[in-house]
Amino acid sequence: MRIALALLACLGLLLSPSPAPAEGPQTTFVLRVPAALGSSAQRLLGLGYDVLEQRDGDDLFVIGDARTADRLRSDGFRPSIETAMPPSQWAPRSLGESTYFGGYRTVTAHIAHLDEVANAHPELATVVDYGDSWRKTQGAGGYDLKAICITRKRPGDCELTPTAPKPRLFVMGQLHAREITTGDMAWRFIDDLVSAPDLTAMLGSIEVWVVPIANPDGVEIVESGGDTPVPHRKNVNGTCSSGQRGVDLNRNAGSHWGEVGTSTNKCSEVYRGPRADSEVETQALESLWRKLYRDTRAPGDAAAASGDTTGAVISMHSYGNYVLFPWGWSTQKTGNDAALRRMAQDMAALSGFRAGQPGELLYNASGATDDWVYEDLGVPSFVWEIGASSGTCGGFFPAYSCQKDVHWPKVRSMLVSAMKAAPEPY
Q1: Paired sense of beta strands 168-172 and 312-317, if any
Q2: Chain segment 33-52, per-residue pLDDT in tens
Q3: Which of 31, 70, 238, 384 lies deepest, with the highest CB count within 10 Å?
Q4: Longest dimension (CA), the chain
Q5: Which residues form the signal peptide (predicted)?
Q6: 353: phi > 0 → left, psi -120 to 50 → alpha, else beta; which?
Q7: In what order do the strands lie in the sheet with 50-56?
Q8: Using CA atoms in the order 100, 101, 107, 110, what is the torsion angle rounded to 10 degrees?
Q9: Cis-peptide into 327, omega within 30 deg
Q10: CA–CA distance, 260 with 48 (Å, rounded to integer)
Q11: How many CA atoms lie less than 13 Å away from 136 in the CB half-sphere?
């Protein structure tokens, strides 16, 4: 929903240069930017703007402050204000607090939840520590990186070996820290897997692995804002004098790393890092995936994974209402395009989302985890962009009530579809 014209005139974002920024926290804007599919969209990404996973016709959307609109105009774009988010106040939160912003769970609550589920359902659930966040590796706080494996346990289940007896569905939330809907979807999925009869009935023939918080250091910054969450996207490894510190973990994976849709600017929201797989969070995920899945695909961009491939990987993001599949770095088709497209369309039909490759619906970007999973292992991998672009239930920070009533019914149906497809995806 657009801001009133009075706000536009006051800010001067359309008619005159912006005033010097005031001291203290700044209002964050979502800016509508005409950038058609193809060269215009890729140029916008190549300049390092924080481009959202959202498109409306020929328009993309950029998040930033008043100075961002000036930069866009100087780069030849014509921005207008779409929405505004109030300034966030970053203040230390008590370790005893388990929720923020109306009910969203903190990192510590998510980690505790995994242990609680495993203790209450030892016949179904196993918690796995698969690494450490960057801050923890530096002795500066941080977190264990935790996953939970849920299945009706038999010998060999939930073991870190690609020759495990059951096919595996892997679901991940909050790789981008500010996408708080995705952590909540993971929480709800875990609870339903151990309590809802239709899902528990499926656990005799499949393992489900869930990482609710893939970027806990970044999420700690988000939740520090309390009722005005901080829109932090990246991890926290690095310094920056004019923007957010950190590396974009969804541009850091070693699949066509450093190519289209990334930036070498450390302050860019799509900063790719100093080298492929440089971040401990990326390394830990890739190591875990290699322990969970057989490699069934030969090298080469056009090679197909074998027909006996099992499993699937879902990375939940927000927002835009899309189901995306490889390749993300190019509109070139994968060797398994028909099967990936069919799976994506089946999931999208249940939710009302749109399905396609990123370059077909949004723009191309390299170094994404879903491309890495498919390229390195041949496993079907998807990105879900959950939520509309506007309204109470849209954007990065929807009202908490939207999770149960709006997002979860759609996401749950897609998760069931993915569970059914995982044994024989191709």
Answers
A1: parallel
A2: 999 998 999 999 888 888 98
A3: 384
A4: 68
A5: 1-22
A6: beta
A7: 50-56, 59-64, 28-34, 80-85
A8: 90
A9: yes
A10: 11
A11: 14
End-to-end CA distance of the chain: 41
Q: Please state, in angstroms and rounded to a whole number, the distance separating the CA atoms of residues 323 and 349.
A: 10
pLDDT score, position 97: 79
- What are φ and ψ of residue 216, in 5° steps? -65, -35
DSSP secondary structure code for residue 99 in this structure:
E
Of the candidates 396, 397, 389, 395, the one whose C-alpha atom is nearest the C-alpha of residue 55 is 389
Q: Note the pLDDT tens digit of each residue in 155-193.
A: 999 999 999 999 999 999 999 999 999 999 999 999 999
For tokens 């289209």, the residue is 260
Q: Which is it for strands 381-385 and 312-317: parallel, antiparallel or unpaired?
A: parallel
User: Could you tell me if 260 and 251 are in contact, meaning their C-beta atoms sit under 8 angstroms apart?
Assistant: no
Spatial distance between the Cα atoms of 269 and 52, rounded to a whole number of angstroms: 10
Q: Which residues are catalytic?
A: 385
Residue 287 and residue 130 in contact, taking contact as beta carbons nearer than 8 Å: yes
Q: What is the pLDDT of residues 193-212, one digit of tens each?
A: 999 999 999 999 999 999 99
Query: The pTM is what?
Result: 0.90
Q: Residue 50 has which token pair?
A: 């924080």
- Which tokens is 153 given? 């346990």
